[in-house]
Amino acid sequence: MSPDISVVIPALNEAKSIGPAVASTRNHEGIECIVVDGGSQDNTPRVAQSSGATVLHSPPGRARQMNAGAKAARGEFLVFLHADTLLPGNFTDHVRRILTTPGVAAGAFKLEIDGPGLRLRIIESLANWRSRWLKMPYGDQAIFLRKLTFNQLGGFPELPIMEDFQLVRQLRRQGQIVIAPAPARTSPRRWQREGSWRVTLINQAVILGFCLGVDPVR
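RESULT FIELD:
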C-alpha cells in the first residue's frame, strides 16, 4: 500500500533524538518516514534507519534537507518534523481531517515543550496564542500541507534561517492554516542551554530583522 502521508525529518548530529522522533511516526497505516541527513558526524543515519526510517543524504541546511525529502516523498500529504520533536499519537487523523477540509492550505500542531517550569509554560502559551490567532505556527509545531501545494510554492526558500516563517507567510495567502488540538512535544534543550527569556528575545529580534529586510545570512 502506497503511503498517503510522508513525514520528513531533517537531521544533523541527532543520534540521541532521532530514534524517538522516528518512532513517533510509526504504527500507523499509510505512513512513510524520511530522514534527510545533512552530514552527521555521529550515528544519526544508522539510528534513523534502524528505527524504521528511509535515510537520504544532502548538503547541510534545514531548508535544503527538507526540500530533498519532499522531492523523494510518495505521500499526498507532507509533515515536516524537527529531529528533537515527537508527533502526537493520533497525528494521522488530524493531518487527514485538516488537509481534506475545503479552504485549508496547511496545518500544524500545538506546541508542548518537554520540560518543567513556569517560564516554559508561559512560552508555550504565547506560542499557541500566536499560532492560533495569528496563524503563524513555527517549524517545531510540525507544519503539514499537501505536496501539491508545497510544489506550487516552490518548497522551502533555501535560507540559512526563517525558512519555516517564510513558507507559512506564503501559505497564509493560499488559504486557512489550522492548528490541531493535539500537541507536538519538542525538546527544551535550547531554552535550557541558552536561557528561556534570552531565546525568546533573540527569536523576536530575528523575526523583526527578517521582516525589516535584514539579510538572513547576517
